[in-house]
Amino acid sequence: MSNSIVPVHLVVKSMRDNGYKNTAYAIAELIDNSLQHGSSKVDLICVEDDFKIGLKTVSRISEIAVLDNGKGMNKEVLQKALQFGNGTNLDKAAQTSIGKFGMGLPSSSISQAVRVDVWSWQNGILNALHTYIDVDEISYGNMSDVPEPQISKIPSKWLQIVNEIENSGTLVIWSNLDRCLWKTGKTIIDHSEFIVGRMYRKFINSGSAKISATVIKNNNLNQAIYKQDFTANDPLYLMPNTSISKELTKQGLFDPMFVKLGGDDGFEKKYTISFEGKNHDVFVRYSIATEATRKGYNAGSLPHGKHAGNNIGVSILRAGRELDLDTSWTNSHDTRERWWGVEVEFPPALDEVFGVTNNKQYANNFRELGYLDLNRILDERGQTMLEFKEELLDENDTKALLIDIAKDIKSQLARIRDTIKAQAKNLEKGTATTRHVQDDDDVEKHATDITNTRKEDGHIGQSDKDDDEKSDDEKLKDLVSELVGDDVPEAEDYAKTILTSDIKYQFIDANFESPAFFSVAPVGGKIIIKLNTSHPAYDQFVEILKDEIDENASKESIEKRLIDAKNGMKLLLMAWARYEDEQPDGKRKNNVRDARIDWGKMASEFMTIDE
After folding, report:
1. Which of 601-604's residues contact partners 24+ apart within 8 Å by CB, and which partners?
2. pTM of this structure
């Protein structure tokens, strides 16, 4: 009977839930290992199988592999690589690069797959060594140790997939993928490029590593159905030729789209931290968007703005590899946070100081300081900053060594935010003379951008179906019919204007016999919103906002219009509240409430406007 303190077959189940954010972060661990072992080229290979679901054939990911051209592993190193908590970088003296905890390969693998097989070779593939771990075998008590690596041929299937295998390298294969977030190879690659491109931007940008991805069908191993070379994704937006560069060129914007804050001299600040008898350097770098990048109505909804919106936070780099994009330093409610970048880079010797987790995804001590309001804490404690740091050091809290860095970052971010606000005012002044002319279209453009994004994400409406399936002649006929029914003057010319416009939404005033305030008609690939001019809400809410404001209007008359508009909005909301209140308990009441919640979610997307 085993007397093991930690029964392997039970622990392995809990270890599968080891905190990887998604499949892309787990794949990144394999790339870590490749770069750690001297690879200049890493290939991500996704293999798909076709399945019948009813009458439909769908493709699903069945295996994920990572192949590198690194120096390979001998028998001892390979066996250690698949052991939890073992490896070649456990001694502090060896912790000078990406690797550290001896958890990456096995931990990331079982977070996504039941089985992982590894082949590694140092002198040609005929000498490749193979071993594996299998969660099912461990769970059933049939595996307690990593099998001793044996010389074994790489399966011919993989030799067929890969065009060229170098004299040394490693091939890691995940199979029985029961926890993979995404179901197709292309989806995995598309999501991975953004994240992996950001993690390894320094390696990709310098040319020291090339990361490529391929999707292969199991029934046609010789022909890739999708290929992609990963490009750098720089959250400081200072690198040229990154994943947003083509879009910037298309929009006529400069690449890169941010500038160094303070220029070359003020861009980077160095801090020296004394820890365990040695001095270690930490670098903090800042960037900010140019006015040209933010020019135009709601630049945040444009492709480059959306890209920046997915890169909000302080980028934490360890040995040149990003651990985390830490959002604890941001104002989550403010969409303008996308227009700055901060990068903090430290060496592995400061892992304990920063609080690096064993899956290399967080720096917990640094994150805590992001959330802390240092000035409030000092006021509450009645302490100086020096006294607070000394108290932390007395408690052996290594966060004390990061206090000065955190304080400086918070101060700098406050100044950056003021600059971004000033930018917005300058941009507003620059458009003041034409703003009143553009307003009518600007909101519709914004709604169209949001709608196009939702369509790309798979949310398809009837108007989208009509746009894709009907000819221009059919769409024009439908639009004319809709407008003629509401006595719109010159309906045919108006319909042609609507059809050729890129704008999805069109408002039309109409006097129709209905208690409804407005109607919605998906017609000709567009969405026609008719405002009922005979409804009391039209006069109360729409008409007073529609008329131009006379430049000589008194302050009192402008204030009255704003108050009337506010009251009109309140009355609309109160009418809905009473409508919901009067519904009988049961399904109808629940449906009305659900409709309100769903509409609120949609409104949140449409009304998020960057200033």
Report:
1. none
2. 0.67
